[in-house]
Each structure stands twice: as structure tokens, then as C-alpha cells.
Specification:
Strand order of the largest sheet: 1-2-3
Number of helices: 5
Shape: elongated
Largest sheet: 3 strands, antiparallel
Structural class: alpha+beta
Number of strands: 6
Order of helices and strands: HEEEHEEHEHH
């Protein structure tokens, strides 16, 4: 903007989408500057075209959201199919700007976590060929398999940033897998004695585990 207006950068002001020379009526709007930034013929010597910039910022202190996920499920021993009958989550995200969007973010993350815990798996054969390369054989959660989610918040403003906010982007996806796996272990332990089971906990895997117990 300073180059186009033929002024020193220190004399340039920006207001209402326009660059201007302080104390004058000479001005350029933001779009004109953006167009010029892509035209090498309008740039100062040595300046690269474009408006791309890189930077980094390391906050002096981190923020830590808190949450608790509780999953309740029932398993059909004849088929190994599990049904999540109740899912409750309580989160602390600090100061919340948009509760509706935040709720959707948590719901979507939980659906992703349920898929990771129960359905989704990348399988390869001995030659390295992907066997789950389409939705015909790569299972994902659907509207009829994602549970009803009881979501509530008890937010405590963060003290390490001026907005009082905490991260929420991955809270649902991080909390759901261990909650779902723990529910499976809790349900299967009395019959099988297991304390651990690998994801994804498919119906086939549960059925085979129960058949092993029957055979013993």
C-alpha cells in the first residue's frame, strides 16, 4: 500500500477497508492492494508477489480443557452386536462463545470416536492390498448407530489467556474411544475375565470371544 501510494509505511493508516496517507484524501481499498500484490509489475524491487506469510507463536502457558465421558452399552451374546443405550458427557471449555456450534463439535467428535472404537479398521492382505477400500467393507457409524448424547457443560474460565477460553476441537473424539472400550471391558469381564480388548471391537470379535468362553 505504501509503495502504491508513494508514501512511507509509517504514514499509512488502515480504516474501514481502506489504506490512506495520514492527513490526506489519497487512499486505496483493500481489494486494490490485494490485486496489486499478485502483479509483479506493481511491486517494489525485491518484493515477492503474493500475500502469503508465515509465523509462529508459542504461548507462555497452555490451556487444558477437562471432561468426563460415560458410555453404557448392551451386548447381544448370540450375535456379539453391541448397542450403546446411553452416552453422557460433561465438559469444561472455559468461556464459550457459541454454545450451539460447540455442542455440534462435541457430538461429531463422539461419533468419530464411536466409529474408531467399534467399526472402523484398515485391513491389508499379505501383499499389501487394501481390503477395506470402499464403504462396502469399511464400516462407519451411521445415524442409527450413533447414540443419543447427553451433553452438559460446567465451564470454568481459563486464567492463562485474556479470553478465558480452552480448546474444544478434539474433546469428543479423544474422550469417546476409551469410554466405549471401557464399557465393553466392563460388560465382558464377568464372562471372559478380560481387562483389555483391541479396537475396533466389532461384533465378530465379541462373538468369537464369547464362543471361546463357551468352548472352555
Amino acid at each position: 500500500a505504501a509503495h502504491l501510494l508513494e508514501a512511507a509505511a509509517a504514514d499509512i493508516e488502515f480504516s474501514d477497508g481502506q489504506f490512506s496517507i495520514a492527513g490526506t484524501d489519497r487512499r486505496l481499498d483493500l481489494f486494490a492492494v490485494a490485486r496489486a500484490a499478485r502483479d509483479p509489475g506493481q511491486l517494489p524491487q525485491g518484493m515477492e508477489p503474493g500475500l502469503d506469510a508465515e509465523g509462529s507463536f508459542t504461548p507462555p502457558e497452555a490451556t487444558y480443557p477437562n471432561g468426563c465421558h460415560i458410555c453404557e452399552l448392551e451386548i447381544d451374546p448370540a450375535t456379539g452386536v453391541a448397542t450403546i443405550v446411553n452416552y453422557t458427557v460433561m465438559d469444561d471449555f472455559g468461556a464459550v462463545i457459541n454454545p450451539l456450534l460447540l455442542t455440534g463439535q462435541v457430538h461429531g467428535g463422539i461419533a468419530q470416536g464411536v466409529g474408531q472404537a467399534i467399526y472402523e479398521c484398515g485391513l491389508y492382505d499379505e501383499s499389501g492390498q487394501l481390503l477395506t477400500g470402499s464403504f462396502m467393507d469399511y464400516t462407519m457409524p451411521r445415524a442409527d448407530t450413533v447414540p443419543s448424547i447427553h451433553f452438559s457443560m460446567h465451564n470454568v474460565p481459563c486464567t492463562t489467556n485474556p479470553l478465558g477460553i480452552k480448546g474444544a476441537g478434539e474433546a469428543g473424539a479423544i474422550g469417546a474411544p476409551p469410554a466405549v472400550v471401557s464399557a465393553f471391558v466392563d460388560a465382558l469381564h464377568p464372562l471372559t475375565g478380560i481387562n483389555h480388548i483391541d479396537m475396533p471391537i466389532t461384533a465378530q470379535k465379541v462373538w468369537r470371544l464369547l464362543q471361546t468362553v463357551k468352548a472352555a
